[in-house]
Amino acid sequence: MTIFQHLERQGSRIGELAERSQLTNQSVSYLVDYLEEHGYVERRPDPKNRRATLVCLTNRGWAEMNACAAILEDVERELVKDLGGTNLQQLEELLTRYLKAVSSLGEGE
Question: Global pTM?
Answer without folding.
Answer: 0.74
